[in-house]
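Morning!

This is the sequence you dropped in the shared folder:
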Amino acid sequence: MSIFRKSLAFALAFVSLILPLITPISAEVNYANIRTDAVSVSAQSAILIDASNDNVLFAKNADLRLPMASTTKIMTALLALECGDIDKSYAIPKQAVGVEGSSVYLVEGEQLTLGDLVYALMLESANDAAEAIAIIVAGSTAAFADIMNRRAAELGLTDTHFTNPHGLDHDEHYTSAYDLARLTSYALKNEQFRKIVSTRKTTIPFQGNEGTRLLVNHNRLLRSYEGAIGVKTGFTKRSGRCLVSAAERDGLTLVAVTINAPDDWRDHTSMLDWGFDNYVHHTFAEAGEYKLTIPVCGGTAEWTVCANATEIAATLPRGHGEISVTVKAPRFVFAPISCGDHVGRLIYRCDGEVIGESELYAAVEVKAKNTKKSFWEWLRALFRF
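The structure's back. Tokens below.
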């Protein structure tokens, strides 16, 4: 075989090996085991997920790429909290004054904290606040959009692309209900984000001491739905009515998303009701709560205690089958044992399927016995007396 052919064969083999590593993973929802007929909704696209693990409970066209309107501001708020100092005051830039759409009528040069702007963003859906945040964090809206897209990629949101921080219509500004639900699930793990989106009303300054702006949350589920957390409304003529909501009951947190939904409030009430009626969240063991005692050979103590490294929890259908637990660990271990040594694994199953697991690590140190013999013990062993 010629050198050229050998080189070509090697190149093709190399490409075939690395191609699976660089090919993007599709975020398309697998509907095989998901209820798509459990709830009747008006939305073009809808989804309900368990926020603890992003498992999809109900979906309708959840992987369609669609305009997202002001639900864009979920990412804007998250980046403001992750990248900025919410207690620091900033002068409002000229570019943020008079932005089209919802507004809190920012004044050029007035001083507001980044936190004030995030409250205005998420409660009053203020486009001028979105523009101000983008410029404060990144220097321009274009640079901020780049950050938004990088963060979306990091979170695995493959059906999402941003061109602005507020959600005004643009051909290249889109998301899917699935991506939007996963983004919200992630954002709710940020305590500041969770606090802001669950706030019903608050005030921020207006030109220093000249007055105050009253901010009222547009999400009416906060006032009408038990356990509601927030999160964000949205509307343009192109996108239709968009809504992201979250609610928590008895340890179960659900995130619902609708895009282009004429009857969105009813859609969300129906999806959340169905979720809470049909699923229950179990916490089987908090981190470190499960204890296992294992004998130690050759140690200064006869036993060590092991514990689970992480919380073990699962969301299951109501009326689920039998829960069983399996401990995979040796019958004994040899000294020395240090705290943090891996010992085994704890596995929970429901009807034979794994629903939660955690590694087991030693929580109690056991040193090895001193096996060095004294001179007298050496003589006794030598002469057997």
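Headline: The CA atoms of residues 249 and 266 lie 19 Å apart.

More detail when I'm at my desk.
O.
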